[in-house]
């Protein structure tokens, strides 16, 4: 035990020595790390504890994955799915929590995230699913959760890539070489939600009834969508009874322009449908 380690650290150390399972050992190690003295002479101790925690987490994850058959499913929700992908200790969990307020474990030791974590980003009324992928390692596809996680990454609409060094970037490029999804490199952009929205290739369009304010939330559509696409999405009877529509916004030559079903919509347009 280091000098001036303190009573709580000593108790945690005894818990570690008496622990019968890997999970109990992990819990004790984490308690030792949180109660260890924080000064120059304890730096080696802290580094050693972090290393032991990281290794034990990997062992527990492999054991759990073998028992469960490494079955992890992520159900797509919202208008788009964004995957946070990166190497260990790059702030992936912190970013997920920042974007979605998801309750995730955040710590300064490696491999905190053991399986995909999810949250929802509300972007001006449009729900976007954010999925944090466990840290990418060498030969990631051969790890217990590798194939499942890579499948999630490949079905995403956008990847937010996080790494600390050029070597880690090379590792990610190699492990993701078969992934054909748009990638955004994260560098603490202040307006990240806006940048995510711009890269997704979707637009939000509001509907309104004649003489009333626009409805909320907006409808999310692919870029290039027409009035007909929106009408079908809102209600199937709109097409049968469609008379004309009025457009307010970027795609209109002037507010209130009368348009037909083939009119292409733009982000933040307001559509007022008139039926027979």
Structural class: alpha/beta
Indicate the CATH topology of the largest domain: Rossmann fold
Outline, from the CA principal axes? elongated
Radius of gyration: 25 Å
CATH superfamily of the largest domain: P-loop containing nucleotide triphosphate hydrolases
Fraction in beta strands? 15-25%
Largest sheet: 5 strands, mixed
N to C succession of SSEs: HHHEHEEHEHEHEEHHEEE
Got a strand count?
Answer: 10
| Multimer state | single chain
Unreliable residue stretches? none
Which terms would index this structure?
Ubiquitin-like (UB roll); five-stranded mixed beta sheet; 276 residues; Rossmann fold; 10 strands; alpha/beta
Description:
With 276 residues, the protein is α/β, with parallel strands linked by helices. It folds into 3 domains: 62 residues, no CATH class; 120 residues, P-loop containing nucleotide triphosphate hydrolases (Rossmann fold), CATH 3.40.50.300; 73 residues, Ubiquitin-like (UB roll) (Roll), CATH 3.10.20. Helices cover 37% and strands 20% of the residues. The chain contains 9 helices and 10 strands. A 5-stranded mixed beta sheet has the order 2-3-1-4-5, sandwiched between helices. A 5-stranded mixed beta sheet has the order 7-6-10-8-9. Strand 2 and strand 3 form a beta hairpin. Helix 1 packs antiparallel against helix 2 and helix 2 packs antiparallel against helix 3. The radius of gyration is 25 Å and the shape is elongated.
Give the topology.
Layout: H1 7-18, H2 22-35, H3 43-68, E1 80-86, H4 92-100, E2 117-123, E3 126-132, H5 146-155, E4 158-162, H6 166-175, E5 183-185, H7 192-200, E6 202-208, E7 219-222, H8 227-234, H9 237-241, E8 242-248, E9 257-259, E10 270-275
Parallel strand pairs: 1-3, 1-4, 4-5, 6-10
Antiparallel strand pairs: 2-3, 6-7, 8-9, 8-10
């Amino acid at each position: 035990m280091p000098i001036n380690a303190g009573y709580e650290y000593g108790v945690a150390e005894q818990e570690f020595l008496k622990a019968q399972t890997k999970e109990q050992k992990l819990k004790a190690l984490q308690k030792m790390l949180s109660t260890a003295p924080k000064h120059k002479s304890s730096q080696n101790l802290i580094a050693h504890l972090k290393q032991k925690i990281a290794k034990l987490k990997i062992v527990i994850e492999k054991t759990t994955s073998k028992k469960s058959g490494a079955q992890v499913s992520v159900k797509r929700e919202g208008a788009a799915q964004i995957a946070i992908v990166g190497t260990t200790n790059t702030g992936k969990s912190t970013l997920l929590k920042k974007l979605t307020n998801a309750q995730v474990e955040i710590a300064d030791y490696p491999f905190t995230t053991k399986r995909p974590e999810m949250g929802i980003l509300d972007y001006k009324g449009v729900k976007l699913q954010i999925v944090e992928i466990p840290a990418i390692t060498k030969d990631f596809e051969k790890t217990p959760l590798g194939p499942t996680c890579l499948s999630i990454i490949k079905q995403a609409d956008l990847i937010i890539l996080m790494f600390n060094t050029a070597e880690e970037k090379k590792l990610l490029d190699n492990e993701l070489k078969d992934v054909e999804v748009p990638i955004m490199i994260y560098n603490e952009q202040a307006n990240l939600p806006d940048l995510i929205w711009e890269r997704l290739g979707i637009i939000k369009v509001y509907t309104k009834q004649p003489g009333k304010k626009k409805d909320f939330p907006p409808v999310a559509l692919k870029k290039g969508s027409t009035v007909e696409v929106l009408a079908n999405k809102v209600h199937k009877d709109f097409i049968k009874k469609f008379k004309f529509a009025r457009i307010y916004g970027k795609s209109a030559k002037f507010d209130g322009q009368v348009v037909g079903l083939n009119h292409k919509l733009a982000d933040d347009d307001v559509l007022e449908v008139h039926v027979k």
